[in-house]
Amino acid sequence: MAPDEVTYITIGPLSAIPLGMGRAYQVGSHRIAVFRTRSGRVFATAQKCPHRGGPLADGMLVGEQVVCPLHAFRFDLQTGQCEQSQVCAVPTYPVEITPEGWIRIGIPARFPSSEDVSPLLTSY
After folding, report:
1. How many Cβ atoms sit within 10 Å of the Cβ of residue 22?
2. Which of 50, 53, 61 has its CA nearest to residue 86?
3. Residue 98 pairs with which residues in a beta bridge?
4. If DSSP states are collapsed to H, E and C, what string results for the chain?
5. Between the CA of residue 3 and those of 15, 84, 94, 105, 117, what are the distances in Å?
6. Could you read off the pLDDT of 78-97 as tens digits, one per residue?
7. Dihedrals φ, ψ of 8, to 5°?
8. What is the pLDDT of residues 1-51, one digit of tens each?
């Protein structure tokens, strides 16, 4: 996504995602998985694995890759590329962390406010 095509939405505090874990959020019609690597970097992808629909926020983090919990497909958190298949990439979203420790996700500009955001309670 080009910078002018996104709106940054605050989804919650960085402290809500432990190191080495992911958490799913509903942002308008988008289900987004947000990951905090063991090194502290934060990434966001679509929540649904494009291979078989697995919940990526529940996947294991290996460096800067997430492993789908259903069939072990591995996705690069920066690019979305799948290690097993070049045709099976997952969409990624730009992420900002505010000085106060809030996570902001860049989503398509049609979602104008944080009121459209809610955590999905099935993924912690």
Report:
1. 26
2. 50
3. none
4. CCHHHEEEEEEEEHHHCCCCEEEEEEECCEEEEEEECCCCCEEEEECECCCCCCEHHHCEEECCEEECCCCCCEEECCCCCECCCCCCCCCEECEEECCCCEEEEEEECCCCCHHHEEECCCCC
5. 26, 29, 9, 12, 20
6. 999 998 877 789 999 999 99
7. -85, 125
8. 555 688 999 999 999 999 999 999 998 888 999 999 999 999 999 999 988
In the numeric block, which tokens belong to residue 49?
A: 């694995």
Instruction: Give the global pTM.
Output: 0.84
63: left (phi over 0), alpha (psi -120 to 50) or beta: left
Which neighbouring-strand residues pair with 23? 34
CA angle 124, 7, 104 (to 5 degrees): 35
The domain segmentation of the chain, as residue ranges, is: 3-115
Q: Which residue has the tokens 């874990």?
A: 21
Q: In the chain, how long is the greatest CA-to-CA distance?
A: 38
Class of domain 3-115: mainly beta
